[in-house]
Design a protein that fits this description.
About 35% of the residues lie in helices and about 10% in strands. By secondary structure, it is of the alpha/beta class. The structure holds pyridoxal-5'-phosphate.
Length: about 220
């Protein structure tokens, strides 16, 4: 324990949960950043409230009229069908999702080394997930329009596949994969489907409202 860390939130028993202070107890970081830590909603309940509100607003934008579900800030069942969590960014979101699909495929389908099927245009975060979580990644070709080739994706799916991936849009080319067709492949096989909307997820609903030809929203995917 560094002398600079004496103070604030030792009762949480986690070094990462402490607010670094100097010997006089003054926070060392900018005041707006130093007085809360979302790792500890028991100490700072506003963090959980903000997260619940962000999820609810996001469901409102992307959810085609569905309501946010899960628990609200007070731990009550919030009802609704869609749930969510706030992460530090796109890569963490993808890592968490891929690990979840890996564990789910092991538990549900008994697959020892579950695989990811992803277009070659998918973000590098999927390769990182493959490395971190020991999940072979099978890359699928894209067509001349740089969108995932659904026929190639179908061929790439095996009994070891845990999850099929599509991007809306992809980082490398800005193209939107045929999300509904890919998700239907996954639904037929009873496996997971993940839309990477890190880049355009918050743009697409408004583009649709502005009259641009955006395909049915992500929440319309049955898989
Ligand atoms: C489509 C897509 N997925 C994932 C990521 C990774 O997100 P981050 O850089 O926030 O980790 C990006 C980043 O731009 C992206 O565009």
């Amino acid at each position: 324990m560094s002398p600079n860390c004496i103070g604030a939130v030792c009762c949480t028993a986690q070094w990462s949960g402490m607010v670094p202070v100097d010997r006089d107890g003054e926070p060392l970081m900018n005041a707006s950043q130093s007085q809360s830590n979302p790792l500890h909603p028991d100490v700072w309940p506003s963090g959980a409230k903000f997260e619940a509100e962000i999820v609810a607003m996001t469901v409102g934008m992307l959810g085609d009229g569905q309501e946010a579900g899960g628990e609200d800030a007070s731990g009550e069942d919030a009802g609704g069908e869609m749930v969510g969590t706030v992460t530090s960014g796109g890569t963490e979101s993808i890592l968490l999702a891929m690990k979840t699909y890996r564990d789910w495929a092991r538990a549900r389908h008994g697959i020892r080394r579950p695989e990811i099927v992803a277009p070659v245009t998918a973000d590098a975060a999927f390769d990182k997930a493959a490395e971190y979580f020991d999940m072979p990644i099978v890359k699928v070709a894209v067509g001349a329009d740089c969108r995932a080739d659904v026929v190639a994706a179908r061929k790439a799916i095996t009994r070891r596949t845990a999850v099929v991936v599509g991007s809306a849009p992809s980082f490398s080319h800005g193209t939107i994969d045929p999300i509904l067709d890919l998700s239907e492949l996954a639904r037929e096989r009873g496996i997971g489907f993940h839309t990477d909307a890190c880049l355009g997820g918050f743009v697409l609903p408004w583009a649709k409202k502005l009259g641009y030809p955006v395909r049915p929203s992500i929440s319309a995917c049955p898989a």
